[in-house]
Prior knowledge:
Layout: H1 2-10, H2 19-30, H3 33-45, H4 49-77, H5 81-89, H6 96-128, H7 136-148, H8 152-169, H9 172-199, H10 204-212, H11 221-234, H12 241-247, H13 255-283, H14 294-304, H15 309-341, H16 347-367, H17 382-409, H18 412-419, H19 428-453
Phenylalanine (PHE) is lined by residues 29-30, 32-35, 108, 233-234, 236, 239, 241, 327, 330-331.
Amino acid sequence: MEEKGNNMQVRARETFTSGLGAIAATLGSAIGLGNIWKFPALTGENGGAAFLFIYLLCVAFIGLPVMLAEFIIGRRTHSNAIGAFKKLEGEKPWYVVGWMGVLASILILSFYTTVAGWVLAYVFKAVGGSLSGIDAAGAKQVFDQVVGHPVYPLLWQLTVFLVISLIIMAGVQKGIERITKTLLPVLFVLLVICDIRALTLPGAREGLNFLFNPNFAEITALTVLIAMGLAFFKLSIGMGTMLTYGSYMRDDDNLIATGGRVVIADTVVSIMAGMAVFPAVFAFGFEPASGPPLLFLTIPMVFNSMPLGQVFLSLFFILAFIATIGAMISMLEVPVAFLHEEKGLRRNTAVIVTAAVIASIGSLATLSGSVLSHILIWGKNFFDLFDFASSNILMPLGGLVIAVYVGWAMGKSRVAEELSNRGSLRQDKIVKAFYFVIRYITPIAITIILLNGLGIIGF
Ligand code: PHE
């Protein structure tokens, strides 16, 4: 153990070049398909505003604290998820979090790359003009064709793997930072344009009502679990991603400020995506509960109803694809950093091994839309199973262990030292509040929501 620790210190480890770099890369991980695809889909399926409200509570009392807890562990050790716990606690089994994280990242990437593949397919459709002027029925038909074909979606998914593997081989700073820094603002502007058009559609009001006027009667224990799972998925927490990113942060980066900004920006982007999608749902007569297809049905319709629609639509899908790259890279980074630093594989070899394994498992998710659609496990196809197991079980469990570790085992002085950059930041009150939340509120809330949502206990 000791030896390994020394070994790791000898190998020079990259860090982000600046505080802004840390925020940009962290945001690059958080922002992705979760905002533009999953957030509208789940909000639509689970009744709208009431779901959004519960989601926001989960972000504040579970999401942000767990993110900070991961930053603390990561920066303290400058190690990957498994190595970090080994450095801090030796052979005590805390490092199982790291293993769960590796598993979660494999499961998420398996279906995430499927959806990223759909996005890529839509880039070509948008640029080629085959989405121009279609009506609601046409939009449905296009989506069904993209997803239901037995071969093309697999090829798109493989292309996605190729792209992210090449980028990650270029290294932490060069690969991740540069891309996210330059392109996130452009995506943001495009979302603003999309919002303006959607909000001026006839019937937009009904969509806003759906998104912001809550009806709590529809909320069940499962809905609450799904909202919590979305918070974990959205903020890339509970599986070691933010721990790994924390490990690249510098000793003078302000962890609380970074986490706070990332959480706020991420939430704003999700809500903006919702404000583009839901007015369109009602204006064009789609079902709010359409689920995964929702983004792919509504967005083409919104852009089609404005001048230069084809140009904007193409840009939207191109940027959406780029946004998903940051998220995918951060997921791939979990097993890659582990194989490289713990198992001594060369970095590029680690990337290739990981990508090959995940691409094989991921084909099951992709083929759930066609030839494997009849295979159900616990009533779910592979795509839904990977999604449910990662967001609603593995990540919350990982988050629980991380919260318990930082709240109860790490020791208050080490936690305070990390949050205050060894005393150089004066944030005593915030540190105190954080410590209370991570000790009591976060672990208790996760436990209750998890047990209740899975039907193990009933309130
Ligand atoms: N947060 C990313 C998104 O919203 C997904 C993600 C999950 C990334 C877990 C990394 C780890 O798209």
